[in-house]
């Protein structure tokens, strides 16, 4: 006679499940993306992400304070630029939106970890993540610019960088440049993989980005 196992003993109630579960999800596992729009006056709802708004740059500190009140300690700022050009040069300036966002957050709450998105698509008129040549994104020229952008972010006070463009050689080049410039303590959150999932298309409401790998 065969024995049929019905192993539900360890999950029959909350107490058992808390005891034996392998994984837990807390606020420390989550990063809050925030979308900061320069020269904006009021919050604008992002209709693809119910409950998420583009926040005017002038209200950034207020936003950070309310996230802090909720216990959130990690934010990923994305710039919504009104100063785009073909290169995305605004983001290479120490007075550009990227650097200003980082400085404002750190000044507002110094123990809020700032993990800016590192990419050009928010700052280029064509919307590509990097340098476009003959209809193609040029990998190596894009990496060069992303390295410059990373140094601007590190200088502004970023704790960790989140390069999202998936260029080959990107993470190694940024790590090398950070170390050479004395930013050995600035970490990199590498988007090791992107899936066609709700996490990446373009973030789930209420909002969490999974940490893929930390270098
Ligand atoms: Zn991008």
Automatic annotation (TrEMBL):
Positions in coiled-coil regions: none
Which named protein is this? Delta-aminolevulinic acid dehydratase
Q: Which domain of life is it from?
A: Bacteria
Q: Where is the secretion signal located?
A: none
Its UniProt pathway annotation is: Porphyrin-containing compound metabolism; protoporphyrin-IX biosynthesis; coproporphyrinogen-III from 5-aminolevulinate: step 1/4
Does the record's keyword annotation contain Ubl conjugation? no
Family recorded in the similarity comment: Belongs to the ALAD family.
Q: Where are the transmembrane segments?
A: none
Q: Which PANTHER family match?
A: DELTA-AMINOLEVULINIC ACID DEHYDRATASE
Question: Which reaction(s) does the protein catalyse, per the Swiss-Prot or TrEMBL entry?
Answer: 2 5-aminolevulinate = porphobilinogen + 2 H2O + H(+)
Q: Name one Pfam family in it.
A: ALAD
Keywords in UniProt for this one?
Heme biosynthesis, Lyase, Porphyrin biosynthesis
What EC numbers are recorded for this enzyme? 4.2.1.24
| InterPro entries according to UniProt | ALAD, Aldolase_TIM
């Amino acid at each position: 006679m065969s024995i049929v196992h019905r192993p539900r003993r360890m999950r029959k109630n909350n107490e058992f499940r808390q005891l034996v579960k392998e994984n837990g999800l807390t606020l420390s596992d989550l990063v809050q993306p925030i979308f900061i729009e320069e020269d904006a006056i009021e919050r604008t709802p992002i209709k693809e992400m119910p409950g998420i708004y583009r926040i005017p740059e002038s209200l950034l500190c207020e936003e950070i304070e309310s996230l802090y009140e909720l216990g959130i300690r990690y934010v990923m700022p994305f710039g919504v630029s009104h100063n785009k050009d073909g290169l995305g040069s605004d983001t290479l300036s120490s007075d550009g939106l990227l650097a200003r966002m980082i400085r404002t957050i750190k000044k507002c709450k110094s123990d809020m970890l700032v993990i800016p998105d590192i990419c050009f698509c928010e700052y280029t008129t064509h919307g590509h993540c990097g340098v476009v040549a003959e209809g193609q994104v040029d990998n190596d020229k894009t990496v060069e610019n992303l390295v410059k952008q990373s140094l601007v972010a590190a200088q502004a006070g970023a704790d960790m960088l989140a390069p999202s463009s998936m260029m080959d050689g990107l993470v190694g080049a940024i790590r090398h440049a950070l170390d050479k410039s004395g930013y050995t303590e600035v970490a990199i959150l590498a988007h090791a993989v992107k899936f066609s999932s709700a996490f990446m298309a373009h973030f789930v409401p209420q909002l969490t980005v999974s940490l893929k790998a930390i270098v």
